[in-house]
From TrEMBL:
InterPro entries for the chain: DIOX_N, IPNS-like_FE2OG_OXY, IPNS-like_sf, Oxoglu/Fe-dep_dioxygenase_dom
Domain Fe2OG dioxygenase: 208-309
Keyword terms, alphabetized: Iron, Metal-binding, Oxidoreductase
Domain of life, source organism: Eukaryota
Protein name: Fe2OG dioxygenase domain-containing protein
Taxonomic path: Eukaryota, Viridiplantae, Streptophyta, Embryophyta, Tracheophyta
Family: Belongs to the iron/ascorbate-dependent oxidoreductase family.
Residue runs in coiled coils: none
């Protein structure tokens, strides 16, 4: 079922030694490494030769949200574009989304400042606890990813100011409020794209919880040997990503072609998560994606995840009954958000989809 391979004793000891430094990948770069440690070596991806950087035929849709509330005609046009992108790609970019450019600039700057502050300050926040309000850590995968990450839980229980690092104390809650508002609009459009009441997905609890990950991808001396983020799909309902100008995000298209998601000034990348694919009974697609390591850096991105909560919940999620029929029976068993996320983290970023485990 795609459980992460067992690490050898030598690998475990090397990983522990790296972990104990609490310095992250940036610590390696600051130390002047010219060869990346074997812990970060990834086996060649079977689709790497199919990569189509710069391909003009396959372009992730860019959807302009201007006028979404100006009348039924314009809104329906946007809904159709969202539906097509969600069914075909599972990815799209949005512009004119209502979040001021200065807010986007400030959150990128805040993430950068957090990761570039004094190591002794960051060490105080280093944790593997997924339940923490704010924590600085690395994601696990069979080979480590060339990036450092912090996690901040924004909703349903907003953090107290004193729980947040001073360098991003003001901008994180402000950015979270803007992302929550945009997320609710997107869930309305997605509900309408399914032929449902605009509030259907929101009423199910899809916008109940929100967490932000602040990613920092240092320049890599040997980018062909590793990845910024391993191939995976997201374990949530919906993800809204802000990426800086450097690029490196790729989406797997038709199971055999990597398509670049180019940075567009002022745009946000939106992608369908596993749980939305599950409740739409495969109508919407949770696409696998990855981030390349770059010679240029650091690359900064902020990924905002909509899921019910990191706290254990017993609320079941299964295929939406209004979408089912004799010809379209349920393809997944019911699960809770907590069960799905627990399985996802136990499996690790091993390049396989956690959805397979929940198929009927």
């Amino acid at each position: 079922m795609g459980i992460t391979r067992k690490l050898e004793p030598k690998e475990l000891s090397e990983r522990k030694a790296f972990d104990d430094t609490k310095a992250g990948v940036k610590g390696l770069v600051d130390a002047g490494v010219t060869k990346i440690p074997p812990l970060f070596h990834h086996p060649p991806d079977q689709f790497v030769q199919a990569s189509t950087l710069g391909d003009t035929e396959h372009v992730i849709p860019i959807i302009d949200l201007i006028g979404v509330d100006k009348g039924p005609g314009k809104r329906q046009e946007i809904v159709e574009r969202v539906r097509e992108a969600s069914e075909t790609w599972g990815f799209f970019q949005v512009v004119n989304h209502g979040i001021p450019l200065h807010v986007l600039d400030e959150i990128i700057d805040g993430v950068r400042k957090f990761h570039e502050q004094d190591l002794e300050v960051k060490k105080e926040l280093y944790t593997h606890d997924q339940m923490t309000t704010f924590g600085y850590d690395l994601y696990s995968s069979p080979a480590l990813n060339w990036r450092d990450t912090f996690l901040c839980c924004i909703a349903p229980n907003p953090p107290e100011p004193e729980d947040l690092p001073q360098v991003c104390r003001d901008i994180l809650p402000e950015y979270g409020k803007h992302i929550m508002k945009l997320g609710i609009l997107l869930f309305e459009l997605l509900s309408e794209a399914l032929g449902l009441n605009p509030n259907h997905l929101k009423d199910m609890g899809c916008a109940e919880g929100l967490s932000a990950l602040g990613h920092y991808y240092p320049a890599c001396p040997e980018p062909d040997l590793t990845l910024g983020t391993t191939k995976h799909s997201d374990n949530d309902f919906l993800t809204i990503l802000l990426q800086d100008h450097i690029g490196g995000l790729q989406v797997l298209y038709n199971n055999n072609t990597w398509i670049h998601v180019p940075p567009v000034p002022g745009a946000l990348v939106v992608n369908i998560g596993d749980l939305l694919q599950l409740i739409t009974n495969n109508k919407f697609k949770s696409a696998e994606h990855r981030v390349l390591a770059n010679l240029e850096g650091p690359r900064i991105s902020v990924a905002s995840f909509f899921c019910t909560s990191l706290e254990a919940t017993s609320k079941p999620y299964g295929p939406i009954k209004e979408l089912l029929s004799k010809d379209n029976p349920p393809k997944y068993r019911e699960t809770t958000d907590a069960e799905y996320i627990a399985y996802f983290h136990a499996k690790g970023l091993d390049g396989t989809s956690a959805l397979t485990h929940f198929r009927i």
